[in-house]
Specification:
This protein is mainly α. The protein is built from ten helices and no strands. The longest helix has 61 residues.
Length: 300
């Protein structure tokens, strides 16, 4: 066996450390590259699985576990048929909806245009009425307070009035014991009448504050347009509520279960159209939905 010369041994020692470092890096690069390749492969597989194939066959049967209950029911072929049936019945109930929406929107636009022209006039009339009403309310309140304060003196001077008040108080107590709210309210009104302003008081208030003005023509027209809009809006809500009720009834599901089933079917269609992976559906549900996809699209 050949023994390395002293010169060769010394030369190896001088180059040994750098050489070993290079060899170590080369050795580590192999598994690192392999690991990077594995990560890229997994990423590509994940993207392919999420996006699905662009041939439209991504309604793959790799579903998920779903916890079913009274609201989230399994979308079997029978239930899918029921939802389609419900959607069809719902559409029939909404046949007059476009015309109703147009009527509602027309009334809303007419009201908006009218207020643009007469809004200041209407606000001025309301402010005037509010000022007069506040003045009269304050004046009448003071009259009632004064009459109430003088009630004690009147009762002292009138035994008949004392007897009347005692009688009313006893009747109120009896009505309260029976739980007769109507009778209590009636008797309290009798007491209030004893301190109510007289006709002469009302005349003084009107002279001081003025009479409350009625609605102006502009206010009446605005209210009429507002009522037309509100009426059409109420009819629209009633139609939609009736449509939803009919849909649930025809589907054989409860209203909440029908709404949830419809939402899940809409999500299925959205993902199917974009070739995205289905979420929140079992494999069996995806199979059943795929079989009726065209019918579901027509019903939706």
């Amino acid at each position: 066996m050949r023994v390395p010369s002293v010169t060769t041994s010394r030369r190896f020692r001088r180059l040994g450390a750098p050489l070993l470092a290079v060899l170590a890096l080369a050795t580590m690069a192999i598994p690192a590259q392999a690991q990077l390749g594995g990560l890229m492969k997994k990423a590509k597989e994940k993207v392919a699985k999420e996006v699905g194939d662009k041939s439209g066959a991504n309604a793959a049967l790799d579903g998920e576990d779903v916890a079913f209950d009274a609201v989230t029911v399994e979308l079997t072929a029978e239930r899918i048929d029921g939802v389609i049936r419900g959607l069809t019945a719902s559409r029939a109930k909404l046949a007059g909806r476009p015309a109703l929406v147009a009527r509602r929107d027309a009334a809303a636009e007419a009201l908006s245009n009218y207020l643009d022209k007469h809004g200041i006039e209407i606000d001025r009339a309301k402010e005037q009425r509010h000022t007069i009403t506040s003045c009269r309310d304050d004046a009448f309140r003071k009259i009632v307070e004064a009459n109430s304060e003088g009630m004690a003196a009147r009762m002292m001077a009138s035994p008949a009035l004392q007897q009347k008040m005692q009688n009313i108080s006893q009747r109120i107590a009896a009505a309260q014991q029976k739980g007769d709210a109507g009778e209590v309210q009636k008797l309290q009104a009798e007491i209030e009448a004893l301190t109510a302003p007289a006709a002469a008081d009302s005349a003084k208030v009107t002279k001081s504050c003025g009479a409350v003005p009625g609605e102006s023509e502009a206010e009446k027209e605005a209210k009429s347009l507002e009522n037309q809009r509100n009426q059409a809006d109420q009819e629209l809500r009633s139609m939609e509520e009736g449509s939803n009720a009919e849909a649930a009834k025809s589907s054989g599901l409860s209203p909440r279960a029908f709404a949830m089933a419809r939402e899940r079917m809409e999500m299925y269609l959205s993902r199917a159209k974009s070739n995205s992976r289905q979420r929140g559906l079992t494999s069996g549900e995806i199979t059943a939905l795929n079989a009726r996809r065209s019918d579901i699209e027509k019903a939706m």
